[in-house]
């Protein structure tokens, strides 16, 4: 206990109340020793022996665990990109060229957008690639069109 304040008659003290079944504020009525006091519960006005509140500590209101702060600035797409790249073979990344032909899960190395993974073949001439900054539709098979 940090404070060495002597209890005095009439002072308020937190104690365990047998009637309220919990720690409530009590008023000290009789002091024999700091451990042996008669207190009156301010809630139910019942006088009884002083009992220190559970755990000896003052109100330990259970604070519900705070929701996870949004530390993660990653977008859903970025996480997906991370996940995909974890399993992707970056060694196999091919430089993107709109003349190339791609298939799903191909790893692309784009000069501007970086490494991406082909997530969808839209049609013969278009693919959807996930890059770190999101999804992009890219051209493929350009020369054959
Ligand atoms: Zn009470």
Compute the CA-based radius of gyration. Answer: 35 Å
- Could you say which small molecules are bound to this protein? zinc ion
Number of domains: 2
Q: How many distinct helices?
A: 1
Q: Give the H and E element order.
A: EEEEHEEEEE
Oligomeric state of the chains present here = single chain
List low-pLDDT spans. Answer: none
Biggest sheet overview: 5 strands, mixed
Query: What sort of overall outline do the alpha carbons produce when their principal axes are compared?
Result: rod-shaped
Helix content: under 10%
End-to-end separation in angstroms reads 82 Å
**Strand sequence of the main sheet, in spatial order?**
5-6-7-8-9
Strand portion, in percent?
35-45%
Count of individual beta strands: 9
Mean pLDDT: 86
SS content category: mainly beta
Structure overview:
Helices cover 8% and strands 36% of the residues. It has 145 residues and is mainly beta. The protein has two domains: 12-49, N-terminal domain of TfIIb; 76-144, no CATH class. The strands form two sheets. A five-stranded mixed β-sheet has the order 5-6-7-8-9. A four-stranded antiparallel β-sheet has the order 1-2-3-4, with no helix packed on it. Bound molecules: zinc ion. Residues 17, 19-20, 24, 41, 43-44, 46 line the site of zinc ion (ZN).
């Amino acid at each position: 206990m940090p404070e060495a304040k002597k209890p005095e008659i009439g002072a308020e003290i937190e104690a365990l109340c047998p009637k309220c079944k919990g720690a409530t504020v009590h008023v000290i009525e009789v002091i024999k020793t700091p451990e042996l006091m008669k207190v009156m519960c301010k809630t139910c006005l019942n006088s009884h022996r002083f009992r220190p509140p559970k755990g000896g500590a003052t109100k330990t209101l259970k604070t519900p665990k705070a929701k996870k702060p949004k530390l993660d600035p990653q977008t859903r797409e970025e996480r997906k990109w991370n996940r995909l790249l974890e399993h992707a073979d970056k060694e196999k990344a091919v430089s993107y060229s709109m003349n190339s032909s791609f298939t799903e899960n191909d790893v692309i190395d784009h000069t501007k957008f970086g490494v991406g993974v082909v997530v969808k073949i839209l049609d013969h001439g278009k693919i959807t690639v996930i890059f770190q900054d999101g999804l992009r539709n890219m051209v493929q098979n350009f020369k054959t069109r």
